[in-house]
Amino acid sequence: MAEPGRIPVPLRLCRGCRRFVRIENEACDFCGADLAALEAAHAGDVAALHAAMDALRAAMAAHAAPLPEREGSGVGES
Amino acid sequence: MNVERADFRLPVRYSGLDDILKRVPVSVVWEITLACDLACQHCGSRAGRRRRDELSTAEALDLVGQIAELGARSVGLIGGEAYLRKDWLQIVAAVRAAGMECDLQTGGRNLTADRVAAAAAAGLNAVGISIDGIGATHDRLRGVPGSFELALAAMHNVRDAGLEVGVNTQINARTLHELPELMGIIIAAGCRNWQLAITTAMGNAADHPDMLLQPWQMMDVLPLLADLAVRGREQGLFLQPASNIGYFGPHESRLRNVMDEEIHFHGCNAGDTVMGIEADGTIKSCPGLPSPYAGGNIRDRRLRDIWENAEPMAFNRRRTVDDLWGYCRTCYYAETCLAGCTWTAHALMGRAGNNPMCHHRALDFESRGLRERLVKVKDAEGRSFDHGEFEIVVEPVPACHG
Ligand code: SF4
Ligand code: SF4
Ligand SMILES: [Zn+2]
Q1: Where are the beta strands (DSSP E) in B22-181?
Q2: Domain residue limits, chain A
Q3: Do A2 and B20 touch (CB under 8 A)?
Q4: What is the ipTM of this complex?
């Protein structure tokens, strides 16, 4: 049985200055930001982005649905 | 954030924690011959003529079976120029028959349509073509006039045969400023994977110190690559920085983000998930490393025995912060990074554990108005995989830079 390889020491990303910092940190060692607060704000931004994308997808699906009937009809081709 | 990408599959040579725990040589890079039809100024193995003692066909095919037994998923054939070995298609076919992926890394000078068709028929999965700079820059680095056009033609041949085509590019003082334009050229030629590596001071490259990047140039290299990575992705190009590009600094996530922004460099993989094989059957923990890192030869020992028990193969998993020296010893990232690429550090400094080619380090020096410069103090001897030695000079940042 092979001896295991070296287990990497993971880091966490500061959403403020985008430096990686020690995983146990509460504040960023580079910009001083509150890591959990930035993470929460980022998660909110991502959720908002996903909601916007879902809305866009739904709108596009609504437009795309009539496509087969539209073929050759000249309606809504623009 | 985990970004789910249903349309994206990581190449099989990417390793995971399970591979590290079981120490599976996921990616095996095999120099099958030192014969070469180019004369590259940066060639680490100083390839040209085939070695007298290269493995026979029977030995090579037996080795394929031994590689598969260790659980490898991908075998990359390199040289020299791998296609100059007469039995290279037999090796490709054997790798595929053993259930592993097989790719060819090539300069592409004579990668004709017929050759590619035969390789595709043998089961070759992908081809990576070396393109260093544009036109005359590439031709000069590769030592053959016209080789840039031949490399582009080879790319087209590979695509026409339905194989995946990637490009490998050396980043050095001659190519750095051409990278943005080169990216446009290779995207237009159908490239989806672009591997970039900093030219390491090994073999022929050690004889051309003017070609090598200086540590302070990481201040230009990292932002540029991070920007190219993002722009490339928008155009369907997957930029893969080699493990000698880094480390950390504000661009780390953008540069290495494949599907997860939290991905960062986590240290050298040599001997854990990476294995290198020389044309004479010498086994190393990474293909670029010099001879002190050789674990043995498959003519003397079984591959599994070398992989599992040879002490020179174990340096990486034994390495701790106490093995580091110079700036790296007290670096913020020391525990995770362990001085980055062993190959790069050893080739420059004569021993591993202190790596000046680092963005975090350059940023720290710059914040104090300083920069590091490498000065060559010892020539290489002229053998394959040899290196000279450099000293680090710390100096004030000149007014015109920084
Ligand atoms: S200074 Fe050394 S240990 Fe620190 S990040 Fe750079 S290469 Fe890694
Ligand atoms: S020596 Fe460098 S190239 Fe080789 S496995 Fe380690 S980091 Fe990667
Ligand atoms: Zn920060």
Answers
A1: 27-31, 74-78, 101-106, 126-130, 164-171
A2: 11-59
A3: no
A4: 0.89
